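Anyone? Bumping this.
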Amino acid sequence: MAANATLPTLADALALGLTEHEYELVCEKQGGSPNVLELAMYSLLWSEHCAYKHSKKLLRTLPTDGPHVVMGPGENAGAVDVGGGLACAFKVESHNHPSAVEPFQGAATGVGGILRDIFAIGARPIAVLDSLRFGEPTGPGGTRSRYLLDGAVAGIGHYGNSIGVPTVGGEVYFEGPYEHNCLVNAMALGLAERDRLVRSAAAGEGNLLVLFGAATGRDGIGGASVLASAELTGEDTATGASGGSGKRPTVQVGDPFEEKKLLECSLELLERGLLVSLQDLGAAGLTSSAAEMASKGEVGIEINVARVPLREGDMEPFEVMVSESQERMLCVVEPDNVDAVLALCEKWEVGGAVIGTVTDGARVRVRAGEELIGDMPVRALVDECPLYDVHPSKPQQPIYAAPPATLAPGAAPRDALLALLSAPNVASRRPLFEQYDAIVQSRTVRRPEQADAAVLALPDGSALAVSIDCNGRRVAADPYRGTVEAVLECAANLACAGAEPLGTTNNLNFGNPEKPHIAWQLTEAVRGLGDACRALEAPIVGGNVSLYNEGATGPIYPTPVVGMVGQMPDARRAGRLAFARAGDEIALAGPFAPSLAASELSKLRGEELPDGLPAVDVDAVRAAQVAVRDAVRAGALSCAHDVAEGGLAVALAECCVVGGLGANVELDASSSTGDPLTALFGEGAGGFVVSGAPAALRELAARVALRPLGTVGGDGLSIRWGPDDALAVALDELAGAHRSLEKLFD
Amino acid sequence: MKFGVLRFPGSCDEVDALEAARRVGDAELIWHGDRDLGGADAIVVPGGFSYGDYLRAGAIARFAPAMESVIEFARSGGLVLGICNGFQVLCEAHLLPGALLVNANRRFTFRQLDLEVINAQTPFTRACATGERLSIPAKHGWGRYHADDATLASMREHDQVVLRYAAGESFNGSVDDIAGVCNEAGNVFGLMPHPEHAVDRLTGGSADGLKIFESICVAVGAVA
């Protein structure tokens, strides 16, 4: 040990985010006060971001087993069996706090990080999706929201496009509570031969640790762990295009070219069987990667910081150990293979260096040359951070202010339809997804806006479908049912494409869990997530938690983003969301019981969130999804589109606009509880707009509640709900309203 | 016949090009550091972000050892197809006239587009008809074709404008809506849209891009 170094104090520990109790525990584990390096490493590994200390107990209640699961939570990514000897790896992760500080790099490195998780287990990344939340793009905070939106979308595109992985789908919502805490969640999928998936557990005393990829610099020191584990203050966040920022130096900077080489190099190293295990460097850099590899393998690890290739020569050992420089991987290699590993690094022009060894003692030791400068028990670092119970309490008062009204209370249905179609949460996402390469790798069967889920062909003729979803406003109204709905929505999207769920990933984005009302949102949402995933037999194979998304203006809407992967036997039969043939009959399938509670229409009217959503019959919804899925797979339907934000009328309008075909629709007054607005714009799970030949719809009616609506054709959408009550809008006008986001990107 | 598809660090669409070429012939990847073109009858310089597109798109790749051989191959009449980043590389290597600038909309944009075949006599378009429309996706941030007036006049005189974006289809602001050009000898062809991504209706939006690869086969005499 550096004998003459001054040891840090409790005050230093508190400044690094540990509590007094946690600091005492660290001293106990160390048998005395930790030095600067050790304290830095403990503070990171015991942060919320790395230790999940407020969520781990809840996460243990989630279903993680199922017939398709190949790799569950705990590895870099989960994986499911997709047949033909292949496994699909997937995971979603957040990069919320960095994106609030610097949206372009925050979002770009979010994509980079999730891609590394995928190839760290030996899978080639085949798709990216993103889930974004910003404040309202117009009105008082609009300038900043548009700046964040523009930067995040450009950053996602920059990274994904440059690395040759298609961005095939995603979602974005604009709501006031995200104004000061935007959300940037990125999901990635990868493909690997099932029996070649790699784990991250270090093994084999005497084996060597090779760090490869980019050199280590001072960027992002304490980034994820410091940024992601505390509330941001006003000074931290960007204030506009010129926004200065107190925390900008902790945001990492991404280099997709470096990662592209790292990806190809990693996959070739694995292909040649040169690695014992592999792990990416993410939050807390070498500290967490090395400690977690040691913990999983139940071995020790020794690292010599003097051997780490640096960008800046004068870095302190603790800086080397906690740097969050991007595009780096750590692997365990048998001594005989080291030369071959370094030669491949040279081929791909990525740096590679032996920086340590696997040891038999269960300790993480750090040296600077000969000098031992840190020595910690692996278990203490990784597994013995105290876990906390949250103390949920349902709030007595509403947490969220009512949104400003943008639609007059007595607005005619026709005006309401156009307002909804042009609302930021409903309008076409084309200005966003056109900035992403959706087709590289020649696997994309359904591109954005062609179907409710993205569809990716597999070599055996089958296909994967993938969807990501969460309506935070509905979760805010009812954390349990809102989360159940988010899971059902993902499964509905898969059903419309013709796919059956295989597995689920999730990103729990919430406020400060130490506050009882947030703890209540979190607890209820996790309960809903578990119940819905169990009911759908779509187990959770991995995920991420992002807490403390709140500031002086309050918490974000609780946003448990759900990503779901499914499969269909025949890629050629993948469903489409748009009307395709004039003369087709249109019907509403499923146990759809619309309500205006927490609907998009109620938001436009400026209504407060209700206390609770109507109950959902999950089994009935699931049965409807199965029936629609089977009909799509049989090639019987020309369109299948799930009813979501804006209700039935908006779903019909979307089928018209995307297909370039009109429709004549008549709503049965008796089925709509007498209220036309509820029938037109009410929301809820379990509704599908389907079209097809009359015989096909009759066949579907034998399996699921089916209400005939009308026929496809004409040059506009006309909906009639009474002898004298109707609306009619020309296709051009519908399309114009649907294009409203374009002006945000001028 | 055999296609050779270059692979630079940062190439993204080289496997797509390889698979597209394999629909009509044999094809192999050529590593950027190798000077041996492996006896290829035609070379594809693929899309992506070679060397990260640092400095300027295509500016570094043009100096790769493999490109030295490709330049020699082209000068001796060999067929060279540059797609997207490959088009940029061929312009940087002065195998094709003009340059590619940042899109007029200043954003990376991905869209399925209609192209119009202007010259169906080239070795790359002879499976098409003049005036035929091809539906092919484009995806790039730096695709605005530019050449000075004298160059453009000379190109028109020698029928070097091979493909145009159909009316109203271009998002990048290319001069004269130019989407693809060839050299004066007609053996080097570059285009910004991606024919290798339009070889199968399942994933490509159309199979029109296959005609470019079929044309090359015909041109090298592999198909009667």
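Late reply, but here is one note on the structure posted above: The first strand of chain B starts at residue 2 and ends at 7.
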